[in-house]
Amino acid sequence: VRWGAGGVLEYAGRGDDQVKVRGYRIELGEIEAALARCVGVGQAAVVAREDQPGVKRLVAYLVPAPGGVVAVDGVRARLAERLPEYMVPAAFVVLEELPLNANGKLDRGALPAPELPAGQGRTAPRTAVEEVLAAVWQQVLGVDRVGVHDNFFDLGGDSILSLQVVARARRAGLSLTSRDLFMRPTIAALAAEVTVAETSEDTGDAHEDVVCGPVATTPVREWYFRSHPVAPEHFNMSMSFALPDGTDLGALRTALTAVLQHHDALRSTFSRTASGDWVGEIAPSTDVDQVLTVHDLSAASDADAAWDELVVGAQSGLDLGRGPLLRAVVGKRGSDGRDRLLLTAHHLVIDGVSWRILLSDLATAYEQALAASPVDLDPKSTSVRQWAQRLHQYVADGGFDNQVSYWQSVLAGAETRLPMDLPGVNTVAAQSAVSVSLSEEDTQTLLYRVPGMYRTQINDVLLAALTRVLERWTGRSRVAVNLEGHGREELFDDLDLTRTVGWFTSIYPVALELPEDHGWAATVRSVKRQLRAVPDRGVGYGALRYLSAPEGPGRVLADDPEPQISFNYLGQAVGGSADAESGLLSTRTRTDGQDHSPQQERNHLIDVVAAVDEGRLHVTWYYSTAIHRAASVEALAQDYVATLRSVMRR
User: Fold this and answer.
1) Are 151 and 447 in contact (CB under 8 A)?
2) Consecutive sets of 10 residues in the chain, 650 residues long: mean pLDDT of each?
3) What pTM does this model have?
4) 20 to 30 A from 217, CA-CA: which of 315, 420, 541, 630?
5) What are the CA-CA distances from residue 263 to residues 213, 275, 370, 385 (Å)?
6) DSSP assignment letter at 115
7) Cα(176)–Cα(156) distance, integer angstroms
């Protein structure tokens, strides 16, 4: 642009060397100027190459200064100090001279393609730290090869998988947080910042042998007891497995004993006081015989019906006041001749992240017990007891007070209600579901290509598609949705929840608004911007609403209207880790039964739950048949899938 005579800016044109790579508009001249200031560089040129279809990357061409030598590693490090990560070229090529055309200008078309390692276009790890991080990424993301300049989120990473990366990296001796991963999503950038963990690092009570005693309430616990008055003892998460032939039940019993002692929350009980408040307590021990029961199904006239009865009995038979709140039920010799295992736990003591921890530890403990070795699980992280105490103190000290105005603004002018077909009841007994799926090919595109196209994360894309569907359904461009986060935010430097079993879920509202430009790029950018504006990924909303003192500023949120729709992306299906896929828990089966009391009121009219299982994205729309007709929800679900496919065709 240029200043006009009247003092206004006039558009003069666009520079020829501006390119778009990974969603960022980049001035190549800015990178070339930074290169020219590096020691040993005489001339420099940068181009955006697409030597592999769909993979555009920056390549720098360097000519040494007279008598000088170009040290590529030094140049790369210098650029990383001066430029953002996305402007650091992925490859560097040293030439004797730059090719020129007949007019004496740089002939960009004559610049040679860089040599790519193993034909993959990826830079292999160059240091010990990079090798550790690459191995961790490969395990967590399930990919064969990772380059040090690959973006974690472009490879299908998400916030839940980031916790697994942090846990495994710490296990390997690196000091790392999930915040680090979000700020530096490549191995090269991450390795430059992480340090080797000190063995004496203060982790509070994380490594105590036994944690027991009263547990202060948490936001999700308060939300639960206030919204589930009918049968609070019946709200479970369950998983089922076909056990391998020859499963040693004695070793399983030993493994369960170790897991119960290791993870404090599994020994929790909850009781109601005379004033109506619920209080929590962690017992010093739990009798494994109350957790593990074995049943012979071979004599039953209908083994499947007998098993279903056992499942429902375990799910509905928990006693909050007495515990235990975890049950392991083995059915021997089912209709298929195999033994079965049901694991069911009250939601108060477990969440989606916890399942990954629990299954991995149970599989590890079983293998160790089977080999007659002492059970030695990875160190615990911070106890839920200490976390609850610190969170209460943080709220009391005003730690979230500066978020009150933000949360008040979220629902202002937003549509919180949904269209309804029928004026019926919204109980679990009336719940039904419509499930839709993407093909494996489309899922791969959605997970591994689309986030890179928009420089965003998969959750942003899924919510952008949902926003469009809701606009078409409600006729409103700003619709409120309740979201769920894992809730394990790094609020306190000395606390670590990466390997803590418990219920930490944060539930918070967002009002997703479409921009005037309905193009996909503008839509995804708008949703991404709105989601990034959420402070602490939503953990402060519940803390303010449920833990503030009666006179505290957060109490103004207590009367907020609840959105009638929720969305939850669970990421890769639980049981996908290498630890749980070998041996004891190698064959997961469908779990029927009743995780919730049929008489309980549902919290939303529609719950949308998305997850990737066996390579495919599955999206389930839960609704009440007394409020919405199946055809209406089917239309929404199909519209959502079509909308996701349209973003892939951009």
Assistant:
1) no
2) 73 63 75 91 90 70 89 81 78 89 84 61 81 88 81 76 83 80 84 69 51 94 94 95 93 96 96 94 94 93 92 96 96 83 97 92 94 90 94 95 94 93 95 95 87 83 95 93 92 89 96 86 90 92 94 90 94 54 80 91 96 91 97 97 87
3) 0.74
4) 315
5) 14, 30, 21, 11
6) P
7) 20
